[in-house]
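Same chain as my last thread, 754 residues:
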Amino acid sequence: MAVDMERFIARFVEESREHVARLNEGLIALEKNPGDSETVHGIFRSAHTIKGSSRMLKLVAISEIAHKLEDALGALRDKKITHSKKLADLLFRAVDSISDMIEKTAAKQEITAADKDVCRELTKAAEGGFSVEDKEVPASRPLTEENAGEETAGSTPPMPTPAAADPNAPPRTTVSREPQPKTIETVRISSGKLDDLIKLMGEIVSNQNSLKQRMQDVREIERRIRTHLEFVRKLKTRGNGAFPDALLDQAQTMHTEIRQLAASIGEDITAQEFLSGELQERTLIMRMVPLSMVFGTLQRMVRDLASALGKEVDLTIEGGNIELDRKMIEKIGDPLVHMIRNAIDHGIEKLEDRIKAGKPARGVLKISAYYDTGNVVIELGDDGIGIPLKRIREKALKKGIFTEKELDGMDDETLMDLIFHPGFSTSEIITDISGRGVGMDVVKRNIVDDLKGAISVQTSAGSGTVFVIRLPLTLAIMPIMLITVSGTPFAIATHYVREIIRVPRSEFIRVVDRTAIRLRNEFISVFDLEPLLKLPGQGHSAEAKEPLIIIVSCGTDYMGLIVDELVDEENMVIKSLPSHMRNIKLVSGFTISGTNEIINILHIPAILAAAKETMGPRKHAEQSTVKESAINILVVDDSINTREIEKSILESYGYRVTLAEDGMEGLEKARSFEFDAVITDVEMPKLDGFSLTERLRKEESYEFTPIIIVTSREKEEDKRRGVQVGADAYIVKGSFDQSNLLETVQNLIGIKEK
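reply #2:
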C-alpha cells in the first residue's frame, strides 16, 4: 500500500512552524539572559526535531541547515563558544532560512538548496572560530580520515550494529504482550471544513428565530379560534337552544387541539433553543484560538525593528492565553504591527534622549489582553515621549484638514483622533519604517469597520502612549438589539450598548448646541436617531414624555440615542452589505428577521461621528460680555462628557478653556500656566477636587483665583468642606444649568482685577 506523503508533509509543516516559533522565542530570551542553560537546551531540542523530521521526509535542504544550527547550539550548550550579538544574528538568519523553506514546502514549491553562506558560518561558529566577540576555543574535532566518512547532511544514518551474543549469558525470557490500543486525543480538521460548520450553525440559529415567529403565528390563530368559539356560544344563547350542539362541540374541540398544539410547539422550541445554543457555543469554541498565535511572532519583529533603528526595546506580553475567533485573529495581526512600528519609530526615544529624561536605557513595549463584559480588550502601550498634541494641530493646519478656528474649538480627544485621518502623520521625515501617512487610518478601518470593534488612545507627555482596542469575541454570530425608529426596524450590536434608560423630557438640559441629560455623576449628550437617519418623521420619539434612550459607546466616546421602542434581543448572523452599498456609512451590515424582513445593523462609530458633525464646530459668540483679551479657565473633571459640555458652554461665550482629566493633571497644568479661574469636580482619581483646591490655595499665584466646584455631592457637610478648602462657589450637578455656571463665572471673574 502506497504511503500518503502529503499527509506526513502537512503534519511536518505544522509541527515545524511551532518549533520555529520556539526557536525565535528562545533566541530572544537568550539575548536577555545568555547564561540560561534551560533555554539553550530547549532551542537545541527544537533544531534537533526539525532536523530529524525533515531527514525522514527526504527534505535534504531543511535537514542540512537544521543540522548545522543544531551543531552551533550544541557548541553553545557545551560552553565551547559564548553568546554574542553577532552569533545571535547568525542564529536568527538560520531560523529565518528554515522558516522560509518550511513555507515553500507548505506551498508545494521547489527548494533548491540550503543557504550555503549561513551553513558555512554556522559550521565556523560551532568550531569556535566565528567571531572575535566570542572566546577563542579549539575546534571541537578537526576533520580527519577517521571521521571523514561520518554521517553527512541529507544521508541516512547507519543502523546500529547489534552486539555479539554472549554464549555464557543466561537465556532471555521473551514476554508476549498484547498490543494496547492508543487513545487518540485530537483530530486535525481543515479550517475550510470548520468554517463551513460555523456557517451552517449560523443558519440554524437564524432558523431558530423563524421558529419563534411561527410560534407567534400559531398563538395568533389560537386567539382567533377562541374569539370564534365565544361568538358561537353567543349565537347558541340567542338562538334559545336551536343552535346545533355539534357545531359548538366542534369549535370547542378545535380550540382545545390548537391550544395543545401551541403548548407542544412551545416546548419543542424551548428545547430546540437550548440545543442550538449549546451547538452555537461549542462550535464557536472550536474556532477560538489563543492570541499567542499573533503575539508570539511580535517578539522577533520588535527585536529586529529596534535594532534597525539603533534602539533597545523590550516587549512584555500578558494575556496570550485569551482566545478569539480565528477569523479575527487573522485580521488583528496587521493593525498590531502598524502600531508597534509607530511606537518604536515615533514613541520610544533614542538611547541618549532616554538617559537625559532619566529613563532606563531600554524602552518598554507592553501588550496585554483580557476579557471585559463579553469583549476582548487588547492594550498596546509604550513608555516613550507620548503623542505631541501641538504637532498634531500644526500638521492638521498645514494639511488644510481644519481651519485654525475649528482647531481652537477641539478638545484633546477630538484632536488626538486626527492621527487616524487618512494620510496624516506627525513624522518629520518619511522612512522605510513609518511616516508615509499610511497605517493608522488602516488600523482604525480594520478594527472598527472589519472587526466591529473600537479603538481609543491615551497619551501623556513624556510618559508614553496606550492604544486600547475592544473587540467582540466572534463575528460569526453576534448578539444584537432590535429597535424601531420612526416605525422602521433597525439593530444595534449589543457590545456597543452601555445601558437603556427612560428619562422625562423635563429633565433634558440644553447646552449650547446640544441636548444632554444628567446620569449619575456625569452629563451625556443625547441625539434623536430619526433626523440623523433621515427617516420620514412620525413623531413617535418626539411626542414621548419619557423617551427611550440607549446609551451607546465606542472607546471613550459615548452618547444617548433616542429610539421609539426596544423590540427584542437576539443572537443573529450578520451579513455583509453588497458591494454597491458599501459606501453607506451609517450601516455596517444586515440580518434577516423571523418574518424574512431585512433589518439594517447601525454602525455605531459612524453614528457617533455623524451626530457630532451635525452639531457643527463650536463657534464663539459674536457678541460676548467678555473682552477681546480672552480669559483662560481650567476645567478639571474625570468625565469626558462633563468636560466637553462645560467647555462648550464657556467657549460659546468667548472663554479659553484648558481641560484636565484628574486632579493631579489639573495641578500640574495650573502650575505651568496661570489661569484666571478653575472649575473642578470632586470625585476624581489621583487627586480629588477638595485636595486640588486646598493645594492651589497654597500656591502664591492662586491665592485669590476664583475656584468653582461642580459636583454631584449635595450634602451640607460636603458644601462646608468646599468652603473650608477655599472654593468660591459650589454648584451641584443635579441643579446644573448653563446660565447658572456662566453667571457664577462672570460674577467671580468680574471681582478679579485683570
